[in-house]
Amino acid sequence: MNALAATNRNFQLAARILGLDSKLHKSLLIPFREIKVECTVPRDDGSFVSYIGFRIQHDTARGPMKGGIRYHPEVDPDEVNALAQLMTWKTAVANLPYGGAKGGIGCNPRELTVSELQRVTRVFTQKIHDLIGIHRDVPAPDMGTNSQTMAWILDEYSKFHGYSPAVVTGKPIELGGSLGREAATGLGVVFATEFLLDEYGMSFANMKFAIQGFGNVGSWAASFIHQKGGKVVAVSDITGAVKNPNGIDIPALLKHKEKADSLKDFEGGDAMDLNDVLVHECDVLIPCALGGVLNKENAADVKAKFIIEAANHPTDPEADEILSRKGVTILPDIYANSGGVTVSYFEWVQNIQGFMWEEEKVNYELKRYMKRAFNDIKAMCHTHNCNLRMGAFTLGVNKVARATVLRGWEA
């Protein structure tokens, strides 16, 4: 099942639980605006190349829209639409005054030079500059993009609208980025895990963790888990996979990856098959990479008692049902990985105020927001007698529906 179908399915279930009016139900699904542009740029060798860029702006009921921009060869309208819709529910769950958006360019950033990437980014910004803005739509980095990409968007946007640091988040610190933003999604995942384990009278100490994906989110999550006394017994990314039943020395693994640009040949553990990390013996499984990695083929073999969805849509609906029957507790993506957008919100606030926070304050506020959202989800689970995924979706959909009605949408 593709991301859009899975997201729509979860929305439909939440809408049914909430008893939403059919007209409101339909209105909430339809994106506010879909943008498709052609980005033609010169290559370094003088030839020209064209890429298609997208920006889906899903909902404005609770505030300006917010969402990442990804550069990937498989970017398509369906995926971008699903992720924009997910951002609408995610920002509502986290209680941030935003709606959802998502964007992307169908290119392979690995095949482009830095100067070519800059030209593509600037042309894309020129095409959409009048449709984004501080109080309209605030982009952020995503797969294949980073703080440098945001710096180029900020610079190009500012040529049209004057210096506007709050137009993007995830910027370099020197251009108004927030301290703590790089670690935010991983730290948020760890806070979410801590709150869930606490419900079961458990802590990180002596718990075994398997982490699929060792990029920004996975590496930060592993580091914080290691610091809190948890045992990370298996780690994988596209370069390889490592296991150690006694716990991997995460600082040593980070040094090895930085030096070798790979998890292969790490001396502090044994190599294993990439796909086996998902079904490895552990207490907590944290998928931090691509969507759909837990499916009907492997769900029955999952040994973890808890799954923390650090990636977007890592669990297919069929896998969801299999895992639920096995008694596995799943903390859904629209809550578990909301640390990134929460600290993006803090960055936006700091830019608007022109007053920057210390990292300690950023992390303190992140934990406070994550805790409040967790309690809100628990309350919805209690009210509707549902699991955590439906608790989060009913919470998010209900907030957006309420804001939509209060604004007088039928007038």
TrEMBL record:
<dbReference type="InterPro" id="IPR046346">
    <property type="entry name" value="Aminoacid_DH-like_N_sf"/>
</dbReference>
<comment type="similarity">
    <text>Belongs to the Glu/Leu/Phe/Val dehydrogenases family.</text>
</comment>
<feature type="active site" description="Proton donor">
    <location>
        <position position="102"/>
    </location>
</feature>
<dbReference type="Pfam" id="PF00208">
    <property type="entry name" value="ELFV_dehydrog"/>
</dbReference>
<feature type="binding site">
    <location>
        <position position="66"/>
    </location>
    <ligand>
        <name>substrate</name>
    </ligand>
</feature>
<dbReference type="InterPro" id="IPR006095">
    <property type="entry name" value="Glu/Leu/Phe/Val/Trp_DH"/>
</dbReference>
<dbReference type="GO" id="GO:0000166">
    <property type="term" value="F:nucleotide binding"/>
</dbReference>
<feature type="binding site">
    <location>
        <position position="90"/>
    </location>
    <ligand>
        <name>substrate</name>
    </ligand>
</feature>
<dbReference type="GO" id="GO:0004352">
    <property type="term" value="F:glutamate dehydrogenase (NAD+) activity"/>
</dbReference>
<dbReference type="GO" id="GO:0006538">
    <property type="term" value="P:L-glutamate catabolic process"/>
</dbReference>
<protein>
    <recommendedName>
        <fullName>Glutamate dehydrogenase</fullName>
    </recommendedName>
</protein>
<feature type="binding site">
    <location>
        <position position="216"/>
    </location>
    <ligand>
        <name>NAD(+)</name>
    </ligand>
</feature>
<dbReference type="InterPro" id="IPR033524">
    <property type="entry name" value="Glu/Leu/Phe/Val_DH_AS"/>
</dbReference>
<dbReference type="InterPro" id="IPR006097">
    <property type="entry name" value="Glu/Leu/Phe/Val/Trp_DH_dimer"/>
</dbReference>
<keyword id="KW-0520">NAD</keyword>
<feature type="binding site">
    <location>
        <position position="344"/>
    </location>
    <ligand>
        <name>substrate</name>
    </ligand>
</feature>
<keyword id="KW-0547">Nucleotide-binding</keyword>
<dbReference type="GO" id="GO:0005739">
    <property type="term" value="C:mitochondrion"/>
</dbReference>
<dbReference type="InterPro" id="IPR014362">
    <property type="entry name" value="Glu_DH"/>
</dbReference>
<dbReference type="InterPro" id="IPR036291">
    <property type="entry name" value="NAD(P)-bd_dom_sf"/>
</dbReference>
<dbReference type="Pfam" id="PF02812">
    <property type="entry name" value="ELFV_dehydrog_N"/>
</dbReference>
<feature type="binding site">
    <location>
        <position position="185"/>
    </location>
    <ligand>
        <name>NAD(+)</name>
    </ligand>
</feature>
<dbReference type="InterPro" id="IPR006096">
    <property type="entry name" value="Glu/Leu/Phe/Val/Trp_DH_C"/>
</dbReference>
<feature type="site" description="Important for catalysis">
    <location>
        <position position="142"/>
    </location>
</feature>
<feature type="domain" description="Glutamate/phenylalanine/leucine/valine/L-tryptophan dehydrogenase C-terminal">
    <location>
        <begin position="178"/>
        <end position="408"/>
    </location>
</feature>
<keyword id="KW-0560">Oxidoreductase</keyword>
<dbReference type="InterPro" id="IPR033922">
    <property type="entry name" value="NAD_bind_Glu_DH"/>
</dbReference>
